[in-house]
Amino acid sequence: GEALAVSARVAPLGSRLVLLLVEDLTEARRIEAVRRDFVANVSHELKTPVGALSLLSEAVMDASDDPEAVERFAGRMQIEATRLTNLVQELIDLSRVQNDDPLEDAEPVRVDELVAEAIDRCRHQAGTKQITMAAGGTADLHVWGNRSQLAAALGNLVENAVNYSPARTRVGIAARRVSGSGGDIIEVAVTDQGIGISDKDKERIFERFYRVDPARSRATGGTGLGLAIVKHVAASHGGEVTVWSSEGQGSTFTLRLPEAGLARDRAHQHPALD
Ligand code: ADP
Q: How far is the CA of 155 from the centre of ligand 1 (A)?
């Protein structure tokens, strides 16, 4: 009688254990599949510009008595080389944000400086499309984190806003402090009047190499890694990135990060005073 009662008690526990084990295996398989997909994607993305470069160099050799054609092919070689450089740089950035602990050399970072840097990075591209960039609310705000990672994250959001917007539109960057449960949070919202993103795509754009329109992304030098980098940076800083969008109207990407409180700044700069 007792043995039966015990086994009746153990049995559900046993099946739960088996279930956990199965879930664990499924999760391990999923991670393995994601890793394999990533390697396949990287290989494919590298092959495309390398293949183009190899064909173009042959074309240059065949056209050696036609200076105009040589110049045309050389121009396209330059575009492919830039594409390759961007891709390798973004892969390095991604692996860095995935592997390094950003809080090891965290410091208070001025939001107005991050925003100015992001705007500078896109000034040329915005200028050619006559896109106006405007920032507000950034004065006296500081976030807590790794300066170069935060700059890369915000830079990617502003760059996307410019890339996925038609000419003569506006990109706005607005920052503010909001009270969160675990202390104050700084919100930086990047708003564009661009093509927007469907609900279905919204769920996937933060995945590595996911693009709504691969041809359009490539045409602007996109690698499909930008938002994956932003998401990693936000998460490793204890923050998050969210998107609001309406197709054909525009998008707002909001980065939420922990504030670098003044008290913490002071403790950091003058530990002896505390
Ligand atoms: P990419 O290098 O292609 O820009 P991202 O990871 O930065 O890669 O973005 C992934 C995809 O999300 C883009 O290819 C684009 O389809 C979409 N996307 C990102 N930002 C915007 C935006 N502001 N407006 C519309 N679509 C966007």
A: 13
Q: Alpha helices of 63-110 — where are they, by DSSP H?
A: 67-99
In Å, the largest CA–CA distance within the chain is 98
Residues near 249 by beta carbon (within 8 Å), at least 6 away in sequence: 193, 196
Ligand 1 pocket member 102 (CB < 6 A): no
Distance, CA of 224 to CA of 233 (rounded, Å): 16
Regarding the beta carbon of 217 and ligand 1, being less than 6 Å apart is answered yes
pLDDT over 50 (residue 15):
yes
96: amino acid identity, one letter:
R
C-beta of 250 in contact with ligand 1 (< 6 A): no
Ligand 1 pocket, residue 211 CB under 6 Å: yes
Q: Is 190 near ligand 1, meaning CB less than 6 Å away? A: no
CA 268 vs CA 40, 153, 187: distances in Å: 45, 25, 23
Q: How many CB atoms lie within 10 A of CB 212?
A: 17
d(CA 58, CA 63): 9
Rounded CA-CA distance 148/144 in Å is 12
Least confident of 30-39, 86-95, 201-210: 30-39
Render pLDDT for 242-274 as a digit per residue (tens, 0 to 9): 999 999 999 999 999 999 975 444 444 444 433
**Which neighbouring-strand residues pair with 135?**
173
CA angle 226, 232, 237 (to 5 degrees): 130
Instruction: Please give the model's pTM, rounded to 2 decimal places.
Output: 0.84
pLDDT tens track for 142-179: 999 999 999 999 999 999 999 999 999 999 999 999 98
